[in-house]
Amino acid sequence: MFCWANDVAAARLNLGYRPIDFLAHKERCESFGKDQTRVNFAIRKLGDTTIVGLVEIMNISPVHRSAEIGIRIGDEANRGGGYGKEALGLALDFCRNHLNLNHPQLIVLSNNARAMRAYKAVGFRREGLLRKAVFVDGAWADFIVMAVLRPAQTKRGPTVAPLVPTREAEPAAA
Ligand SMILES: CC(C)(COP(=O)(O)OP(=O)(O)OC[C@H]1O[C@@H](n2cnc3c(N)ncnc32)[C@H](O)[C@@H]1OP(=O)(O)O)[C@@H](O)C(=O)NCCC(=O)NCCS
Predict the structure, then answer these.
(1) How far, in Å, CA of 87 to CA of 56, rounded?
(2) Which end of the chain has fewer beta carbons closer than 10 Å to its terminal beta carbon, N or C?
(3) Where are the beta strands (DSSP E) in 21-160?
């Protein structure tokens, strides 16, 4: 995880590069467990204990029932093999079933085609464009905002008659 945090090429696909030393990285990781606004998961292949990537659910808001999702498959050799989509699907299940979130969202650099394909495959849809929002590797870049909304709950049909003022509902005097 420390090596991934200092991977310049991957950082260029994310939010730009800023080196981090081992102690600062360790402290950051240790703080995750105490932070109620985030849940971090490691991604592993079935039957293998090695971590191949990370999914983060951040800025969890119980008021707005929203959160932001971030993902990284650590090594290029493991990318493009479907692990990202599967992990995102599991993270979305967790958001719905355990955090009761309605609106998981994320931001992605507009040139990160592979990430956008993976997000789209699990249900994220483009919601907007933040023009020249970030400075990455010597140039301004656009962010695309994507979100996945929970399917609308089916409305129940009416089960009571339309309400009427109580005076009108009184039986007429004999
Ligand atoms: C983005 C990332 C998490 C996706 O995970 P992954 O395991 O590589 O992705 P998957 O294999 O599950 O799915 C990738 C999708 O993009 C497509 N794809 C693969 N390589 C591609 C490429 N070079 N360009 C465009 N699309 C590509 C795949 O066909 C698949 O789409 P499909 O389901 O419509 O066929 C992973 O590539 C990664 O960590 N990249 C580096 C860091 C990064 O970009 N993080 C996201 C920051 S917002």
Answers:
(1) 11
(2) C
(3) 39-44, 51-61, 66-73, 103-109, 125-136, 139-147
Catalytic residue among 69, 87, 118, 119: 119
Partners of 67 in the β-ladder? 104
pLDDT tens-place string over residues 31-58? 998 999 999 999 999 999 999 999 999 9
Q: Determine the residue type at 48.
A: D
121 C-alpha to center of ligand 1: Å?
A: 10
pTM comes to 0.87
Dig out the tokens for 143 from the structure: 């962010």
Are the C-beta atoms of residues 55 and 69 closer than 8 Å to each other?
yes
Binding pocket residue ranges, ligand 1, CB within 6 Å: 10, 13-14, 71-73, 79-85, 108, 112-115, 117-118, 121
Full set of structural domains in the chain with CATH: 2-147 (3.40.630.30)
| Residue nearest atom 14 in ligand 1 by C-alpha distance | 118
